[in-house]
Design goal:
With about 650 residues, the protein is mainly α. It is built from 29 helices and two strands. The protein has helices spanning about 15-35, 50-65, 80-100, 100-105, 115-135, 135-145, 150, 165-175, 185-205, 210-220, 225-240, 245-265, 265-280, 290-300, 305-330, 345-370, 370-390, 395-430, 430-445, 450-465, 470-480, 480-485, 490-500, 510-520, 525-535, 535-550, 560-580, 590-605, 610-635; strands at about 585, 590. The protein has a two-stranded antiparallel ribbon with strand order 1-2. α12 crosses α24 and α14 runs antiparallel to α23 (about 490-500). The N and C termini lie far apart (about 55 Å).
Amino acid sequence: MQASNEGPIERLNTPARISVGILGAAGLVGIVLQTFNLSLFGVFPLLSNRYYYLLIGIFLAAAFLLLPPRTGAMQMRVNLVDWVLAALALASGIYFAINAELILTQGWDVVAPTKAAAVSIVMVLLSLEALRRSGGTLLLVICAFFATYPLFAEHMPGFLWGPSLSLTETAAAHVMGVESLIGIPLRVVADTLVGFIIFGAVLNAVGGAQFFMDLSMALMGRRRGGSAKVAIISSALFGSLSGSVISNVLSTGRMTISSMKRAGYPAQYAGAVEACASTGGTLMPPVMGAVAFIMASFLDMPYTTIIVAAIVPSLLYYIALLLQVDLFAARKGIVTPADQVLPILREVVMQGWHHLFSLAALVVLLFAVSPSRAAYYATAAMLLVALLRHRQIPKLAAALGLVQGVTRDIAYLIATLCGIGLVVGSLAITGVGGAFSRELVQYGGQSTLLLLVLGAITSFVLGMGMTVSACYIFLATILAPALVKLGLSPIGSHLFVLYWGMLSYITPPVALASITAAQISGANGMATGFTSMRLGTPLFILPFVFVYEPALLLQGGDVVAIVMAISTAIAALVALSCALEGYVYGVGRIYRFERLIVGIGAIGLMVPDRYFELAGVAVLLLGLAIAWQRGKSVLAGQ
């Protein structure tokens, strides 16, 4: 089970709360100074590896105070063990920061002094314990196996063979090398992602979640199935900026799920709608969560390129969700209660226009300046407008709560990514990562589809026991290069891995988003998870479509080809939604046989091949004709 960083922080007693506040404030100040290359007492800006070691020390220490030692023990107070681990983490980070220049100039990652090697072993153990607290025991086992892989690599068969290292050599390579502990995952957080975490936290603090909810209600509240459409649109808007699935469910779900239930949606269906909508929010530009930034680093592409490529697939997913809840409402006769008071669009926009301004500012700044600075500028603009509108300084308690929340989010990420970095480091140290990709291509027999299916299954299985970041990083190292070697586009291959890794949020047995939504709706968690799977069916299919059809990623085609690809995909999603919900516009309710035929026709339309598309149209028309004829017969019999 994946751990969540969304739990309360009541476990902090007063000394721990003060310590976390000091650590968080110091870390955030250091990040801002480093990001903007500001000088302070002649210390900042720091040497890159010195900066990373300091952040690891600060936020690992905070993680041991914030994260309980056992799942479900969030109320357990900070104890002596937590304090000792926090002190060791901080001291180890400071030790490596002090010796950062020597690590680079004297090659300590290859030949380390005895003291540095000993501290490296301590740091690896601390990273694994922090990973256990943030990601769970299963993720710990997986990462611990790979972290120690260099110790026995020479005894492994075939392509799994690699040169072995001693215990001290392995620890030194992990901690003082540039591909493991301070590899790409951690560098992305330190250099880019923190600004977006701050932006999402400030947006929520100044009422962004409520504004997007009111805006969605004003736009969709009176339409058929309006309450479910409100949930989808508000979760898409807020999730696209917060980048967190669970916080999205908790922020918008408390309002949307109860509204859906009042309108007549079953509890498990309401929870499933919110879970699917919140999961899609993390795939929706402009923020998209931590993984998108890691992807940009792996691909060595501007983050804006990832944003552009992700626009159409994420919109197609939300179109499918809106269609399904509309068709469900049509089949069940669900309408918005006449006595429900809805906000007026003009008033909502007038009162919350600054949130739209913040969103627009972030998008423009992402294309105008580096992503590492864009989020800070957008946050500053949002705070300035909020202060001018309310004409009052935020209370100290609110500011401290904001710092503590941001510290918690960063600490959770650092705790997770330090451990995951050990996996990437081991694959690089031993050379097994490259060999694994070559073997995948060989075993796939040059069959792209077979490799995609194997990759989807692997992504799905790993997503059950690993965080999405961990799943993506692992497969981006071994699977994505194999897909690229078979001729698929790099960005399509990486998005394929990301999408399938995200499915664990709505798929039993993990289904973290579904279970969280079920707790709010009062429905059974597993039942909500299976309903989420059905609603999220397009999320299972879309990766196979866009990886073969680059035009859906706004790549590799002229405008006509892109428009045709998008139009065909929308038509296919309409048909697929009708099949899933058992209702066709203009025809009415359809039954199992017709649903099967319509569904087959929809899948045929999705295959980027002219003959398959024509066959899909033919099958689809056949299914609709049968459904129309049956409906006509029923009416005649009445």
